UniProtKB/TrEMBL annotation:
Catalytic activity of the protein: a quinone + NADH + 5 H(+)(in) = a quinol + NAD(+) + 4 H(+)(out)
Gene Ontology molecular function: any one: NADH dehydrogenase activity
Similarity comment text for this entry: Belongs to the complex I subunit 1 family.
InterPro entries hit by this protein: NADH_UbQ_OxRdtase_su1/FPO (IPR001694), NADH_UbQ_OxRdtase_su1_CS (IPR018086)
Major subcellular location class: membrane
NCBIfam families according to UniProt: PRK06076.1-2 (NF004741)
Species whose genome carries this gene: Sphingobacterium corticibacter
EC number(s) recorded for this UniProt protein: 7.1.1.-
Keyword Translocase in annotation: yes
Protein name: NADH-quinone oxidoreductase subunit H
Membrane-crossing segments per the record: 6-29, 77-99, 119-141, 162-181, 193-211, 248-268, 280-303, 323-340
Length: 345
């Protein structure tokens, strides 16, 4: 029985890992296609029909490019930086419930790698570790631009993780649990989605997620016009590819978290009124969940090609003087509403 359980989880890990890499790979193509559309041009269209093979060509280029390690770099930490970045990006999805359960005879498969009652804390712990990959890479490069990018990344991460955590405290006050699986299960029914009870918390969460993923308008750690390429200036070949992959994987996981915490995850309207079997409901729920994720990924890309980059002082001012006070006010407001409900209703 234990062997079957481990085999089930191993297969699930491999499937999720494969899907994550494929989505990250084709997010690069989607980004360039969306940029082309918004700039009135075609984007990549030479490698395969409509450029569908472009990500494979880009991956091949990364594998076959020359591997360069600067003479003054700390070799061990220089290699460890992108490795930490990609590992932390990949393991952050372990607690996300991708669907309900599938039943085949006496076998029940749960579409979640690890159902832990502190899933939200796990996500925060992994996010906090991810910035070490950037810091090590920037410092070990022995390049002043890389070091400046690493310092910016660390400062930005510390600043916006506070707002991110405070925005989720109000959500946890409403749901009463740290388990992401339970939070999603509570949102059965369109009217029960947390976006209706926590709209301000969601806006703060989305803004902080952009900063944590180093996406425009918060891409100061790799600001090309100021820092050449930021923390990965000295990287080439697949090490640079790992940094780029980790960014797109983080964007995918952030989108999954937004959908799971605020938009019902795999839940969709009238799911229990269709008269379908539980397995079909689960399959449709998985497809709905990924549709929500793709919508948020498109939102990430749309913002990138719409808004200009902040100055660094504007970025810090927004985090410390705007988002954190708003998040605290949201916690107080949520507490007052809960107290009124418990007292009068």
């Amino acid at each position: 029985m234990e062997t079957a359980f481990l085999l089930e989880k191993l297969i699930l890990v491999v499937v999720i890992f494969t899907i994550t890499l494929v989505i990250a790979m084709y997010s690069t193509l989607a980004e360039r296609k969306i940029a082309g559309f918004m700039q009135d041009r075609h984007g990549p269209d030479r490698a395969g029909a409509f450029g569908i093979l472009q990500p494979l060509c880009d991956g091949g280029k990364f594998f076959f490019k020359e591997e360069i390690i600067p003479a003054g770099a700390h070799k061990g930490l220089f290699i460890m930086g992108p490795v930490i970045a990609i590992i932390t990006a990949c393991i952050s999805s372990a607690v996300i419930p991708w669907g309900q359960t599938l039943t085949f005879g006496d076998t029940t498969i749960t579409l979640q790698v690890a159902e832990v009652n502190i899933g939200v804390l796990y996500i925060f712990g992994v996010i906090a570790l991810g910035v070490y990959g950037i810091m090590l890479g920037g410092w070990a490069s022995n390049n002043k631009f890389s070091l400046m990018g690493a310092i910016r990344a660390a400062s930005q991460s510390i600043s916006y993780e506070i707002g991110l955590g405070l925005s989720l405290i109000a959500l946890l006050m409403v749901t009463g649990t740290l388990s992401i699986g339970e939070i999603v299960a509570q949102q059965s029914g369109f009217v029960n989605w947390n976006i209706w009870s926590q709209p301000l918390g969601f806006i703060i969460f989305v803004t902080c997620a952009f900063a944590e993923c180093n996406r425009v308008p918060f891409d100061l750690p790799e600001c090309e016009t100021e820092l050449v390429g930021g923390y990965h200036t000295e990287y080439s070949s697949m090490k640079l590819g790992l940094y780029m992959f980790s960014e797109y994987i983080n964007m995918f996981v952030s989108s999954a978290l937004m959908a799971a915490l605020y938009f019902g995850g795999y839940n969709f309207p009238f799911m229990h009124d269709l008269g379908l079997s539980a397995n079909w409901i689960t399959i449709i729920g998985v497809l709905v969940f990924f549709s929500k994720i793709f919508a948020f990924i498109f939102f990430f890309m749309w913002i990138r090609w719409t808004l200009p980059r902040f100055r660094y002082d504007q970025l810090m001012r927004l985090g410390w003087k705007k988002l954190i006070p708003l998040a605290i006010a949201n916690i107080v407001l949520t507490g007052v509403i809960i107290l009124i409900k418990d007292t009068f209703f």
